[in-house]
Amino acid sequence: MDGYVPKSGPEPFHPTRDATSCTEIDCGTPPEVPDGYIIGNYTSRLGGQVHYACKEGFFSGPEDAISSCTALGTWESPKLNCQEIDCGRPPEVPHAVLLGNHSSSLGSVAHYVCQEGFESRQGEITSVCTEKGTWRESTLTCTEIITEINDVSVFDNTCMRWQVNPGRINNQIMYVVYIKGHRADPTESVHEETVNLTTDSGTPEVCLDLYPGTNYTVSISTAPPRRSVPAIIGFQTAEDDLLEDDGIFNISIFNEACLKLNRHSRKVGSEQIYQFKVLGRRWYLNDFYHATSFNLTTREQTSVVCLDLYPATEYTVNITRLRSPEQHSVQIRITTAPAEKQIIGNISIFNETCLRWRRTKTADIEEMYLFHIRGLRWYQKEFAQEMIFNITTSSQASEMCLDLRPGTNYSVSVQALSSALPVVISLTTQITEPPLPEVDFFTVHGGPLPRLKLRTAKEENGPISSYQVLVVPLALQSTFSCDSEGITSFFSNTSDTDGYVAAELLAKDVPDDGMEITVGDRLYYGKYYNAPLKIGNDYCIILRITSEWNKVRRCSCAVWAQVKDSSLTLQQMVGAGLVSMAVVIILTFLSFLAV
């Protein structure tokens, strides 16, 4: 009949005279699919079917994912072909560039930064590689920054001040100041000049070298790529005789660190001595000082001095005219921009969570480093970790160990505050042992083992991959190693002495509220057969939780039950009773035929 084959003889045969008998077809353990796994339970009898699916991070085409047990006692070869998910190059975001290195595997995160003149007002722009093999694009965009220049005013006759909207300035802005001057006689233009000013101040100031007694029209706008609403102001400078006090001078700033000294005296050619005292401080470093002083001797009406200043520093410059009855002084403030070149070099990772780098600037000068750390887990969508902190050091070779969570992809941005360029590095922390299984412990002596409740574990230290039910001799409980890979299936030669895996359930197949499982229910869980316990033996039932990620495997175990002098389960007792009744009926029927 279907599902059986003859044993110990040919067909046809007489059941009472011949030695031939019928044995049920059993195809045994189904074949494995590379990077795939078996879904749910199955039977290895004729007609039994095994359903396959690809593991997390892999996908397949529309191939047949079913293998059937044939009349030959073998399984059909599954045609499922699992390939690793690769999302390719991240999508482009208008007016943004990719930040740092990135991977195209499942769960990878691509970070973007807006180009100069643009900003993302709602937060950071990211794109994530999904299980569909495509990038999940961010809904955030980079919008153009429109700078408004308002409230332009004139002070000290030739100096100008204005307000910038928005007032929050994150980067240096270059302003273009176009000057055009006229006099009543003659009417043609007598002074035309363009001056550039770079600053991050919300209220910029600039002092111009203007002619006395002249009508000026000044236009102020931002330099490309920024856009602005330009501001225009008209005014007249004072006549020269109002400024003819000998010894009076003014100072204007250009190219950030250069000073132009203009003498108001008409005594051209007279020698003058000016004393410069420069003091620089950094608001974020209490012990940082940069002080210098020197004298300038000149006969010129206009002199230029360029100072050797440190980046990202606030300077106060006092200029005093010496050798005069009244020592006229001018004080100006200069804030230098962060350096445009990278000062962090040779950055590397050691001990998994520690960073080491070298500073390209001169040693023994204090520097503050700003750390911005973001952590994501592809297997735990709700997980997000962000840390922002700073450290101060004068060492040229620095090291920093970070407090990071296990099983996490991190993006670490390190920026020296004296530089405008951050360094971004990606690192991945390895998983650690999953939480200990939560089990209701049972001790059974000479009776059936109840159904065991399997509860899901939290993915705190890495993704949970599978749950395994292990059956080992009770005598081996004290020496059992949780991470041992020597335990195989029930059909191995060592199952009686070393134990065996009774069931394996992938984490994605276990409901959130858990499930119940009976040891010895004669079903296949994954590729493992849940065989009945042998009567009269002592066993230890162990639940093992396995976490696998990034080629690292970690396990945690808990003793679920201890069985002494094992007996049949309730399900096995019912099955044995039905078999006994069937034997009695068959014998009675054969006796009747013999009569």
TrEMBL record:
The keyword Chaperone does not apply. Keywords: Disulfide bond, Glycoprotein, Membrane, Repeat, Signal, Sushi, Transmembrane, Transmembrane helix. Residues 1-21 are annotated as: Disordered. GO terms for cellular component: membrane. It is a single-pass type I membrane protein. Pfam families: Fn3_PTPRU, Sushi. It is found in: Membrane. The chain crosses the membrane at residues 573-594. InterPro entries: Fn3_PTPRU, FN3_sf, R-tyr_protein_phosphatases, Sushi/SCR/CCP_sf, Sushi_SCR_CCP_dom. CDD domains: CCP (cd00033). Residues 25-84, 85-144 form the Sushi domain. PANTHER family: SUSHI DOMAIN-CONTAINING PROTEIN 1 (PTHR24051). This is Sushi domain-containing protein 1 isoform X5.
